[in-house]
Design a protein that fits this description.
This protein has helices at residues 40-55, 63-73, 80-101, 105-108, 128-140, 167-170, 185-203, 219-228, 246-255, 269-277, 294-306, 321-333, 347-352, 378-382, and strands spanning 3-11, 17-24, 29-33, 117-125, 146-150, 180-183, 209-212, 236-238, 260-262, 283-284, 310-311, 340-341, 353-355, 358-360, 363-365, 374-376, 393-396, 401-402. The protein has 404 residues and is α/β, with parallel strands linked by helices. Strand 7 (209-212), helix 8 and strand 8 (236-238) form a beta-alpha-beta unit. Helix 1 crosses helix 3. The structure holds D-gluconic acid and magnesium ion.
């Protein structure tokens, strides 16, 4: 069997997605997600101009060799663009191999280690009443674990918070020009514990609550927040400080028992090294799409398992259904599954990407279709052309750019 075609499809059914489709000489196809929110066309070029010419003629069954060939053969290793492109190839090859075997991908990864996958969804509100309505809406949709993000008194636009029902504002992650959000760490640190006290008083002690700090605190500020949130028993505090500085997590870890989740912006096991071996985190957040594919993410999760660290694969709406499906197959197979983020998709996205995975009663399952269980409808995709879009930027009151 040989790869005879590698095509990169870009569409925007509500938000931009980049999809690689590989075709073999006997007509089998495999899909891979190459979406990098805000820098999509960089990955398109990496695939079209540099990788695709190397794939035609290769044996699609040689997944590990192809991964090593693309990783080591490029010379310039790692980074979000490179690893999103490599991931798309990796997942497309696993899709093909599973289709040849006539099995859902998880069966090739060791079979099911569980019956279903606990999901978490996003609740947010500009204020507490709006937040409560959003939590109730997620509970009504079946979610059994909920990420909580709120507005902050004195700030106009904050990560993860958008007016209910406002379609344009609902998508701050995809704007024609970067939306400028504002930030005040002191106000955030004062306000956030009061939010979780209110949520616990309203929704009880058992509901798993997650919170994403989104890289914004210094180590000591993150330590303070982790300690202040201990009474509310969070499921985790995510990206509490920019984790390129791995020393920072050592300080935070020594100060608080609030569980820590890190890694959605990481694209290599080397980004995690000390965090895992020194047990400084509790969940690893990388997505199949941004970590180079199923092949390396499985290896990362096996390393994490040695340190009782669990998976929590990144799954917002900018991970396409192709990347989501690949994650669910891996989630089902590994022993140290933790939780799966699932924000859901627009109706147009569900139409363009027909998928076998399901979300029922708060749990996900990849389905039993051979391969990863996703097909892309080219005709429908063509009706949703790419439009350049940017993630927001974050500024302090004095205008200084801050981490978003
Ligand atoms: C999350 C992430 C997202 C990112 C987005 C960037 O935890 O889901 O932080 O909200 O901001 O994926 O493209
Ligand atoms: Mg996050």
């Amino acid at each position: 069997m040989k790869i005879v075609d590698a095509e990169v499809l870009v569409c925007r059914p509500g938000r931009n997605f980049v999809t690689l489709r590989l075709t073999t000489d006997d007509g089998l196809t495999g899909l891979g997600d190459a979406t990098l929110n805000g820098r999509e066309l960089a990955v398109v070029s990496y695939l079209r101009d540099h990788v695709a010419p190397l794939l035609t003629g290769r044996d699609p069954h040689r997944i590990e060799d192809t991964w090593q060939y693309l990783y080591r053969g490029a010379y310039w290793r790692r980074g979000p663009v490179t690893m999103a492109a490599v991931a798309a190839v990796d997942v497309a090859l696993w899709d093909i191999k599973a289709k040849v075997a006539g099995l859902p991908l998880y069966q090739l990864l060791g079979g099911a280690s569980r019956d279903r996958l606990l999901a978490y969804g996003h609740a947010n509100g500009r204020d507490i009443p709006e937040l409560f309505d959003s939590v109730r809406a997620r509970l009504a949709e079946g979610y059994r674990a909920i990420r909580v993000q709120t507005g902050i008194p004195g700030l106009n636009a904050v990560y993860g918070v958008h007016p209910p029902g406002d379609a344009a504002a609902r998508d701050p992650h995809q704007r024609a020009r970067p939306l400028v959000e504002d930030w005040d760490t002191a106000a955030y640190l004062r306000h956030t514990p009061t939010v979780f006290e209110a949520v616990r008083n309203e929704f009880g002690a058992e509901l798993p609550l997650l919170h994403d700090v989104h890289h914004r605190l210094t180590p000591i500020q993150a330590a303070r927040l982790g300690r202040d949130l201990e009474p509310y028993r969070l499921f985790w505090l995510e990206d509490c400080t920019p984790a390129e500085n791995q020393e920072a997590l050592r300080l935070v870890r020594s100060a608080t028992t609030t569980p820590l989740a890190v890694g959605e912006v990481f694209n290599s096991v080397h980004d995690y090294q000390g965090l895992i071996t020194e047990q400084l985190i509790d969940y690893v957040r990388s997505a199949v799409t941004h970590f180079g594919g199923v092949t390396p993410l499985r290896k990362l999760l096996d390393l994490a398992a040695l340190h009782q660290i669990k998976s929590a694969v990144h799954g917002p709406e900018d991970i396409s259904p192709v990347g989501m499906a690949a994650a669910l197959h891996l989630d089902l197979a590994v022993h140290n599954f933790g939780i799966q983020e699932f924000s859901g998709y627009s109706a147009a996205t569900h139409d363009v990407f027909r998928h076998a995975f399901t979300f029922t009663d708060g749990y996900l399952h990849p389905g039993e279709e051979a391969g990863i269980g996703v097909e892309l409808d080219d005709a429908l995709a063509a009706g949703h052309p790419y439009e350049r879009a940017y993630l927001p930027v974050n500024r302090l009151h004095d205008g200084t750019v801050h981490d978003w």
